[in-house]
Every structure is written in C-alpha cells, then in structure tokens.
Specification:
Layout (H helix, E strand, L loop, with lengths): L1 H5 L6 H7 L6 H4 L8 H22 L5 H11 L2 H11 L9 H5 L6 H31 L4 H5 L7 H12 L5 E8 L6 E7 L5 E6 L2 H16 L8
Antiparallel strand pairs: 1-2, 2-3
Helix pairs in contact: 2-8, 4-5, 4-8, 6-8, 10-11
Length: 230
C-alpha cells in the first residue's frame, strides 16, 4: 500500500520500515537509537535541498538568488512537508509509543515533516538519486505552484520587514485593533504601519495570523510584485 502511495517499490524493505520508526517506538522493540528514522531524516534533508535547488535553478532562469532562496525555504518548510504527508495519509503508518500517539503524534507537523525526509532518505539509499528525484517530483514539485500560492506557507511579515529595511531605517509596527468572539472562536484584527505612513489591517484566528494577514494586505498595497509568482 505504501509503495503505491510513494510510487516506489523498495528492494530493501527494512529501510522503509526504519523510515516509519519514531524514536519513541524504540523502547518497545528494545532497539538502539540509530534504528529510529532520525538518521534517514538527516540524509533526506540534504537530498531534498539539492533536488529542490536544482529544480528552481533550471525552472526559474531569470529569478535572483535571493528570491530563489525565499521560494526554496517555503517548499522545504516543515509546514509544506507536513501538509504533503498528511494529504497522502502516510502519518497513519508512523510507529510511535502509546504516549506519543495519544498526544497526537501521528498528526503532529514536526513528525510528519520528519517522516517525509526519512522516506526520501530511504528511497535515496535504496534506489539512488534518480528515484529520490522522482519521489520529490511526484509528491512536492508537481504541486509547487499551488503550495507557493498557499497563504499559510508564506511569511508575509518577513517579506515586509526585508522590504522596509531595504528602503532605510525603521521596522513595521503592529497594533491590535480589536478582538471578538468566544474563547474557542476568537477573531483578532491587527493594524500594521510603516514609516512612510502606509498601513493596512488584517484579521485572523490568532494574533500571529492576523499580523500575517495585515502584512500581506500592506504588501499588496505598496509592492505587490514581492508576492507575485507568475
């Protein structure tokens, strides 16, 4: 079943098994620390960085080094990798101890992102760079435009800060304007202002999300090209 999901059939099935072993599971099987997926994750991280970098370099020949770095940071981010693993339901097969599982370990973004990289590391060891590249293309790069345009994966505050600092001294200022709703369904309204008097507001379920929304709205006012991926 997993073979069908990741479009790769392992010759060494022990590698795939290791990729799904969370460190919390090892005391159950009385295995040593190196039998968890952490070493495969370490390897997969490096392979992912190389292949995504090559893809961006060849597919975006007119994009600057700075912009390529920003785009890559989104594509290899924990949130993106976790979203992919969740959509493929690979987290259902994670091997955890009872405590980790009870506290949501099979859906925790950090665990899912680590699983993506561990599987990639296993594919690389079992089938080489060509198959590792195929795995990344199928699961990540085939949907890169949608992912890059998904607001929750872009740090608009960081983009706004870098842009304002490139113009001179001063940082954006965020102020809470209003909060409403019951505790389980709060809404926050934030205002962001920059030195030239330009400002915008944004709403979100948390203060951080509201700040991101405000930053995005201000960028769209003063420099929309910063977040255009067309």
């Amino acid at each position: 079943m997993i073979f069908n999901i990741i479009h790769y059939k392992f010759r060494n099935k022990d590698l795939l098994l290791t990729a799904f072993k969370h460190s919390s599971y090892l005391p159950i099987t009385k295995e040593k620390y190196h039998k968890s997926n952490e070493r495969l994750e370490f390897l997969g991280d490096a392979v992912l960085d190389l292949i995504v970098t090559e893809f961006l370099y060849t597919s975006m020949p007119r994009t600057s080094e700075g912009e390529l770095s920003k785009i890559k940071s989104v594509l290899v981010s924990r949130n993106v990798l976790a979203e992919i693993v969740a959509s493929l339901k690979l987290g259902n097969h994670l091997m955890l101890n009872r405590g980790e599982e009870k506290t949501g370990g099979k859906t925790r973004p950090s665990n899912l992102a680590n699983l993506y990289e561990a599987i990639l590391g296993a594919v690389y060891l079992d089938g080489g760079l060509k198959n590792a590249k195929s795995y990344i293309e199928h699961t990540l790069l085939s949907r890169h435009k949608r992912l890059l345009n998904h607001q929750s994966f872009i740090n608009y505050k960081s983009i706004l800060l870098e842009y304002i600092q490139s113009l001179g001294p001063g940082n954006p200022t965020y102020v809470l304007i209003n909060q409403s709703g019951p505790d389980h369904e709060k809404k926050f309204l934030m205002n962001v202002c920059v030195g030239n008097g330009k400002e915008a507001q944004g709403e979100g379920r948390t203060k951080k999300l509201a700040e991101q929304a405000a930053a995005r709205n201000l960028i769209m006012k003063i420099a929309p090209e910063l977040i255009s991926l067309d």
